[in-house]
Design brief:
heterodimer, A: mainly beta, four-stranded antiparallel beta sheet, 11 strands, 49% strand, B: mainly beta, six-stranded mixed beta sheet, five-stranded antiparallel beta sheet
């Protein structure tokens, strides 16, 4: 079974630039999550999709972050413009059910904002 | 905000010893999950314990849950160097079933 795919693996940008991350969840998984993990901390949920609808985006900084999940499969997360404090690992995860149990994570995209 | 806090923040043991990590949370939960994260990788789900369960086993893992104290512990028996990783608890709570991760315990198993 293929896992959650994410790209790119690393990204370095300057502040005020824009950046996009891509995620392909495990086939058949209806729920897709984007988490932000700052060094030394646990992951923090940014947005959760159920199929192509948003379930929870309460912690997404909507003035600069946006995400979409087209056709209920792949998803992209965009930051525009980036700030220094956005430096983190962005993790995508998926799960079979909508009950937020047993999430499968990708390896993440490490973002450095200079 | 992070619902759970792990203790200790870092733990270093010899191969073959047992490792115990603790997690405390703030609000009533539906379940509590433990995940492992190897350096530079994503998280891997280890075990889930529901609010009406007190203890659960999976291989060398033993998880306990004390809802009166709002705490859980993860025991890894007969540790191996390959167990070196960060371990996170994640509590599922509320009608919105929001999953919130703790700050993690960094476990180092010395060969």
């Amino acid at each position: 079974e293929a896992g959650v795919a994410q790209s790119p693996r690393y990204k370095i940008i300057e502040k005020r630039q824009s950046v996009a991350f891509w995620c392909n969840p495990i086939s058949g998984h209806a729920t897709l999550y984007w988490y932000q993990q700052i060094l030394g901390q646990g992951p923090k949920l940014l947005i959760q999709f159920q199929n192509n609808g948003v379930v929870d985006d309460s912690q997404l900084p909507k003035d600069r972050f946006s995400a979409e999940r087209l056709k209920g499969v792949d998803s992209t997360l965009k930051i525009q413009p980036a700030k220094l404090e956005d430096s983190a690992v962005y993790l995508c995860a998926s799960s079979l059910s909508s009950f937020n149990e047993k999430l499968f994570f990708g390896s993440g995209t490490q973002l450095s904002v200079l | 905000s992070q619902q759970g806090e792990e203790d200790p923040q870092a733990l270093s043991i010899q191969e073959g010893e047992n490792a115990t990590m603790n997690c405390s949370y703030k609000t009533s939960i539906n379940n509590l999950q433990w995940y492992r994260q190897n350096s530079g990788r994503g998280l891997v789900h280890l075990i889930l314990i529901r609010s009406n369960e007190r203890e659960k086993h999976s291989g060398r893992l033993r998880v306990t849950l004390d809802t009166s104290k709002k705490s859980s512990s993860l025991l890894i028996t007969a540790s191996r160097a390959a167990d070196t990783a960060s371990y996170f608890c994640a509590s599922l709570s509320g009608s919105a079933r929001q999953l919130t991760f703790g700050s993690g315990t960094q476990l180092t198993v010395l060969p």
